[in-house]
């Protein structure tokens, strides 16, 4: 547990890069694209925990067509790890063989996480795998692929809020913030 005063000052000094209203607008657009592509495909929506929790909930509220929901937990070991070095602590329980899958996560940063999860589903029998992230961080350290659905491009800073954590905190915020000076 962290010092509450330090956490409150991180938050009060942070720059708010995306407001709740901007998030909602971006989510509406993503959801419409997903509806256009997948409404007749009975997809299995896969939440990538923990960061994908809020984005998945927000998209599901907007996707009013037949779909199934499951989740995975796969995290990167460290900042210098390569794509295959994901630490899986939860695999999906739904039979996704020959099914359309939609991966949902908070951020596409370097992209190793989403790329490796897509590869895992493809190798294990999914018919096709789509991906959606609310945030795409802009820099040149990325894998080659891009998610099919992206909410917003954001500058290369350390972000928190709306799924993303600062030392385990602030995933719950209804906006996206950057730590002062980082
Ligand atoms: O595009 P990348 O450079 O791979 O980074 C993005 C991933 O990093 C974060 O997850 P993390 O592994 O920190 O786990 P968490 O969701 O539990 O925070 C985030 O939720 C993405 O899944
Ligand atoms: O900027 C970030 N913030 C929090 N978690 C993250 N995981 C990848 N990039 C980030």
What does this structure look like?
- The chain contains 4 helices and 9 strands.
- The chain has 182 residues and is α/β, with parallel strands linked by helices.
- The chain has a 6-stranded mixed β-sheet with strand order 4-3-2-5-6-7, sandwiched between helices.
- The longest helix has 19 residues, at 20-38.
- The site of hypoxanthine (HPA) has 7 residues, from strand 8.
- InterPro entries: HGPRT, PRTase-like, PRTase_dom.
- This is Hypoxanthine-guanine phosphoribosyltransferase.
- It catalyses: IMP + diphosphate = hypoxanthine + 5-phospho-alpha-D-ribose 1-diphosphate; GMP + diphosphate = guanine + 5-phospho-alpha-D-ribose 1-diphosphate.
- It comes from Marinomonas fungiae.
| Separate helix tally | 4
- Overall geometry comes to globular
Strand portion: 25-35%
Mean pLDDT level: 95
CATH topology: Rossmann fold
Fraction of residues in helix: 25-40%
Which structural category do the helix and sheet elements fall into? alpha/beta
The assigned CATH architecture is 3-Layer(aba) Sandwich
- Overall tally of domains: 1
Q: Which hetero ligands occur in this complex? A: 1-O-pyrophosphono-5-O-phosphono-alpha-D-ribofuranose, hypoxanthine
Q: Biggest β-sheet: count, sense, barrel?
A: 6 strands, mixed
Task: Report the CATH C-level class.
Answer: Alpha Beta
Total strands: 9
Secondary-structure topology with pairs:
Elements: H1 4-13, E1 15-18, H2 20-38, E2 44-49, H3 53-62, E3 68-76, E4 86-90, E5 100-108, H4 112-123, E6 128-137, E7 149-154, E8 159-160, E9 176-178
Parallel strand pairs: 2-3, 2-5, 5-6, 6-7
Antiparallel strand pairs: 1-9, 3-4, 8-9
The structure holds 1-O-pyrophosphono-5-O-phosphono-alpha-D-ribofuranose (PRP) and hypoxanthine.
1-O-pyrophosphono-5-O-phosphono-alpha-D-ribofuranose is lined by residues 48, 50-51, 75-76, 105-113, 165.
């Amino acid at each position: 547990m962290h010092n509450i005063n330090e956490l409150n000052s991180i938050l009060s000094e942070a720059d708010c890069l995306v407001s709740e209203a901007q998030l909602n607008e971006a989510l509406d657009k993503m959801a419409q694209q997903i509806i256009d592509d997948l409404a007749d495909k009975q997809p299995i929506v896969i939440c990538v925990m923990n960061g994908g929790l809020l984005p998945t909930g927000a998209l599901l509220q907007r996707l009013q067509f037949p779909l199934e929901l499951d989740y995975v937990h796969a995290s990167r070991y460290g900042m210098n790890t390569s794509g295959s070095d994901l630490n899986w602590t939860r695999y999906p329980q739904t039979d996704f063989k020959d099914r359309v899958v939609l991966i949902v996560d908070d951020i596409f940063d370097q992209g190793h996480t989403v790329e490796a999860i897509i590869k895992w589903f493809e190798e294990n029998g999914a018919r096709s795998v789509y991906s959606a992230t609310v945030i795409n961080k802009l820099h040149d350290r990325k894998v080659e692929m891009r998610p099919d659905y992206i909410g917003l491009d954001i500058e290369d800073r350390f972000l928190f809020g709306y799924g993303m954590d600062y030392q385990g905190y602030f995933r719950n915020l209804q906006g996206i913030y950057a730590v002062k000076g980082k």
